[in-house]
Amino acid sequence: MLSKNWRVNSDFSVKAASPLLLFHSFDFMLQKGVKPKVFVLETSFSTLNKNSLFVEKSQMNDMKLNFFWKYRHLFNLEEKVDYLSTRVFVLNRMNIPWIGLITGKSSAGSEAPTALLDFIIGLSQVKSEKKLEENGFKVVGEEEGKESEMIKEKNQKYIQYLIQRFFNSFETYHPSYMRMYREFARLCKEQGIQLVFYSPPVHKLYTQAKEPFHRQELLWKKEMESIAREFSVLYLDFESKIPLKCRFFEDISHISSSCYPEVVEKILLKSGNLR
């Protein structure tokens, strides 16, 4: 039986979230005077998908200015410009990266995402719903099952484009996120909080990605293990080292709540605290 000191606080439970959201929640927790003895963090390479623009931008925009200023050394120049521009310029409602609008390229020199801009340009050129449909964009309220074959084909191609773009994003590393993991581990050690990293099995869809994904994931795992050694973090990799018996949700990229008792058991066994 677990000690009475073990307590679940759902207000500060962050599952497979981006490091930015995690770090923001952790900082808020410390400000409120909540200091757990153990903090268990689910980590996943999929959360480092740099091109999850809508999620990433919304999390950046939700940051309080004092939090941003306190940890500004963790962000690169482009992230700082994007965050400050949303605070200063009201017109940037679509959260389009400024550097992409100005140069047409991302900070890495690759082509900036243009799907949203193409869509807006397309809307400005159409004169009727019929023209809109011909451009491959489904009209709101269109009866299900009555789309033309051409529209279905264009929509399917667009879906494939999004999937490919998702996988391509793993070719680029995200150093800001890794700096956040390192800072998070440092703060936990400084505060006397035992930190636990655990990595769930990889979603089966990710195994279909091309080679760069797997290469980057290996580099990420090595860096996470290095952080764990440096800051006395307990690191568990359920993919290759300690497989879970529970397979209630095999098709999701994180461990389901039905696995939690077994996860806790594995953590206690490895830490030597299971009696």
Task: Write a structural description.
There is one protein chain. The chain is mainly alpha-helical and 275 residues long. The chain folds into 3 domains: 14-48 and 173-271, Rossmann fold (3-Layer(aba) Sandwich); 51-108, no CATH class; 115-171, no CATH class. Helices cover 48% and strands 5% of the residues. The protein is built from 11 helices and 3 strands. A 3-stranded parallel β-sheet has the order 1-2-3, sandwiched between helices. Helix 10 (211-230) links the parallel strand 2 and strand 3. Helix 9 (175-191) packs parallel to helix 10. It is globular, with a radius of gyration of 22 Å.
CATH superfamily of the largest domain: SGNH hydrolase
- Please tally the β strands and state the result: 3
- Taken as a percent bin, the fraction of beta residues is 5-15%
Largest sheet, in brief, is:
3 strands, parallel
Q: Give the spatial strand order of the biggest sheet.
A: 1-2-3
